[in-house]
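BUG: 3D viewer hangs when loading the predicted structure for this chain

Environment: internal workstation, default settings.
Expected: structure renders.
Actual: progress bar stalls at 90%.

Input used:
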Amino acid sequence: MAARKTTADWSRIELEYLAGDDSIREIADRHEISDTAIRKRAKAEKWVREPRKVRTANRCEPERSPPPPAPAEPDEPVEAGKIADGGRGLVWRMLDELDVITSRRGELEDMIIEATDGDDDDDRRATMMRAVSLTNRANTMKTLALALKTLNEASAPQGKKAAAQDRANAVGGGRRFGAMGPPTLKAVS
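Structure tokens produced before the viewer hung:
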């Protein structure tokens, strides 16, 4: 089946593309062409698109703090203990956030229902509800626990194998096959 050929108003498409108000697919649907054709033309003619403006008519967006500055390149190597301490602090902050989400789950669900009330499609609501679901929170907890365990093992003065070997040497008296203790006498009647 042959594709339908249309004469597109490329000057109008270029203006809409550069404005950045609508997605490329929305522009393509309006002009009855494929979004791939618009992308190819934009690349060939080097159109520079403005960042797309977010529509906030019916959304509850949390306030976000600016990202922390990028760490400077250290002059000397950083100790594993310092890295682990920073990682532990991050894990504890994330656990606090998880605690807040868990304790305010009902309020979050009410906000999601309110924010998605006018949506024709329920996918957005379902996705947002999955984000605060028990399964998601349990997986987050599991991941944070694993991260904390890894940080603790990495910051140990020696690795797991070396620590196990030291414990074995202490039990065995420094020999590979240490005696378990003196022999005991048992009377058989």
